[in-house]
Model the fold of this input.
Amino acid sequence: MTIQTDESSLSWVLSHSDESKVRLPGTDRAQDPAATLAMALRAAPKVGITRIADITRLDTIGIPTFQAIRPTATTLAVSQGKGITPQLAKLSATMEAIELWHAEQPMPPVMTAAPRDLGGRLDYDVRELAPSVPSVLHDGLPLDWVAARSLVDGAETLVPRDVVALSLVRRAGWNPPVFFESTNGLASGNTLVESILHALYEVVERDAMTAAYTGGGEMGVRVDPRTMGSPVADELCEMMERAGISQEVRLVPSPTGLPCFLSRITCEDYPPAFYGFGCHLSSEISLTRAVTEAAQARLAYISGARDDLRSDFNDDHGAKRPTRPAPAAAGETIPRLPAHESLAGDLADVIERVTAAFSHAPLVVDLTRDDIGVPVVKVVAPGSRICLEVL
Done:
């Protein structure tokens, strides 16, 4: 099913800033980094951020990585961010913490009802949402619902609150396992359009990685990042090589046709394998996100500051570890999709692809709060896939 989406159908969410884009190394935004960082830093104390730390030099790679600390968090107390520049990495970590704070806040439901009692208020099957394992979901189970809107036409709908909210606080009473609760699709930005785009890219990325991970065999096809002709990608690869890091990059197929990359890094002095994923309309941005995220994942373990580090961490369960940087492989040609001149154009393109791939319009819940001043959304895409191993 394909539903044509254009910028006019997004008028309910567009702002003047979305009519263009600020092209940055490794990302596109609606405002320049200084303005975005100023917005994030104004919000930081309001969401409990007490410290923003540069942890780049704890490792030998040198890819900028920051942490934002929230001691009173009810999920992760440490949020990480990476970027091509220290400013972009600091911004990434701060925005990540701000997003999490919004998902942790109480969300009074607009109603409590079983799916079968909602009649025409739902135009999707709740069984298409990612379930917990095990799950007791059935048509007669009363669920708390929050308001959402279709990203195709802005139509109002509902989504289960437990798909949106996130907290590790122990709850009283009976809380049956129903949906897989995660940060997938949670994003922030300068505008709602920018936030929704970031959220959709994450949903698509994790769907592709989940399909590859659970499908058995190779995860995509190996590619050589240097064939892209990107100075940013080339510099990231050179930084890995100078640090003695072996890197393997793979292009992972997505039903959306968007380029999704996986970066796997390891080295002799710190053998465990670390992974990074990326998705974007721009193959360059998608690739650089995967590479910088792999470096960020490695720093999470080096710093030891995260709450969610695995105690059974190992290198692919004993797989043979390379002792020197692997030679470049030719692999597949890296795809290049048509570029758009605005964030609005990007969003219309991505929504059409996601709708066709998952046979349903993606939905958005606006979590923005006027007292915080940062646009934050949760995108829910019925039919998309997610598993714990790719979070």
Q: What stands out?
A: Residues 185 and 203 are 5 Å apart (CA to CA).
